[in-house]
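Exercise 7. Given the components listed, write out the predicted structure of the assembled complex. Treat all entries as one system.
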Amino acid sequence: MTAVAQRPAAVRVRRGGRAAWAGAGLAVVVVAVLGYLPLLTTRGTQVQLVGLFSLVVLGTMWNLLAGYGGMVSIGQQAYIGIGGYGLVYLASTVGVDPFLAVPVAAVVCAVVAWPISYLAFRLAGGYFAIGTWVIAEVVRLLVTQVDALGAGSGASLTGFAGLEPTYRIAYVYWMSLGIVVLVVGGVYLLMRSRLGLALTAIRDEPTAAGSLGVAVTRAKRLVYVAAAAGCGLAGAMVVANTLRVQPGSAFSVDYSAMMIFIVVIGGIGTIEGPIIGALVFYALQDSLADLGNWYLVVVGVVAIAVTLLAPRGLWGLTRGRVELFPTGYRTGSR
Amino acid sequence: MSWVNAVVQGILLGGLYALVAAGLSLVFGVMRIVNLAHGVLAVLAAFGAYVLGDTLGLHPFLALLVVVPVMAAVGYGLQRGLLNRALGGGELAPLLVTFGLAVVLQNALLEAFSADSRRLDLGSLGTASIPVTDGLAVGVFPLLAAVTGVVVIAAIGQFLARTATGRAMRATSDDRDAAALMGIDGRHLYGVATAIALATVAIAGVFLGARSTFDPAAGGTTLIFAFEAVVIGGLGSLWGTLLGGVVLGVAQAVGAAVDPAYGVLAGHVVFLVVLATRPRGLLPSAVTA
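Answer.
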């Protein structure tokens, strides 16, 4: 018994390490460089980069749902659309400043998502996935009926009318960069918190997590609502960038396909994965643009292959040796 | 009279929805995966019949003789080659793989056939109808489609209840490991289940394609309608699925009679109401089929 009581002095518990410090440094440098870009680049480049930023936000949100919360949703386009339409309605009809309307639209998404979660959570697994899609379809069909929102033909964002295009594009770019930092940083901090630990436990084994005192449904609901707000931000970002919203594209299930492919290819269940996945997806989209719809066939085949052959995605190739954004703890001697 | 007409049309349409749904719930019952490509596979079968009609001049009913066995073979190959691997990869993998497959198939169909709407040509059968009373006539083809739906669902039920393979499927559904200990080869059995599911979805796809127009993007709505029929009826009950299909079909037909734009929405609303008030469905079953 004396041997057990002896304190193992050489064990060290740590979270970070050199890679984490390097990762934090790299993130600061990348954000600083990206923040400086509008002073150097053309408007076209900035508009394209905002498109990439929206992919990063969408991938990060889908990863929060599926990779950390264990919920496969193919209906997040409901909130992408509400975010986009929310921005247009608040800015063009109510007259709110567009830059204020973006966060308000995200709050609207969260408020809508909360009651919806009670319906969606009655289904599990694959049926939950299709259920979320039905809800997105209902939202699309309802929006198509509302004349104030432009019915089937959509609406334009007119709130920026007083702003010169060069400034408007730069401001939207900075806002989008800020949203990326907020969303990625927010998920990182969330996953380092007590709730993050609870979520990891739920994803791995919900019944066991529940029996250990984790409030399973409450944690999942919080994630669902947070992901809705994040997707609303992304939707508003896309509309602020393109100045146009249409029910067919804003509520398109193609968004879900994109989000899933980004996360699967990049690496599900990591902070880094969706960012890498978004870069890869963006590059593929760009280089395969001439192929028309074949590019989705190619990306789909790649995603199936990654799921079956390398389920941890591109970031998984590091085998967990490098963690730029460490969320767990490691133990080791010394 | 138009209301009665809408209800009759809805009931007949429901038989087809139930037929798509039966395959979805068979696969879910046996191996606990939801095949998100199920709807696109129905559309694939419809395009198969379309090509046969276009090149060889085959009537859709004759085309079934080719399309159904081909789809069954595709199902067996798909399960053995792709989905059985996905089953070993945790809970998310089958969903991700079948969703990826749906996107791949839909976009490949879009490239091959463009986004144009098509319809399978039934010839004189397409317009034939049986007058019931003044102002109410039942189309011969919709009636035939609904009867086919009921017969196929009954056949699946009998197959699960009476044959050795059906018993093995029910056993695997109850407890996969115990069934394996009794000498049931899960990999082959899963292949057979998916083959049956795709054979039934092929029949449903061809009938749906002859009933109204379809295009490569129709897979999504087909999957959604099948899923709604399953949930409205109650998970794991074949006759519940038939009832669910009929309820959905009637809701859509009555909704469309009010305003054509409300048809699909009315179906979704009935689904959401059932989900909110009777989450186990209208005919819940203790035994998973």
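Discussion: The beta strands of chain A are 11-14, 155-156, 244-245, 330-333. Chain A has a mean pLDDT of 85.
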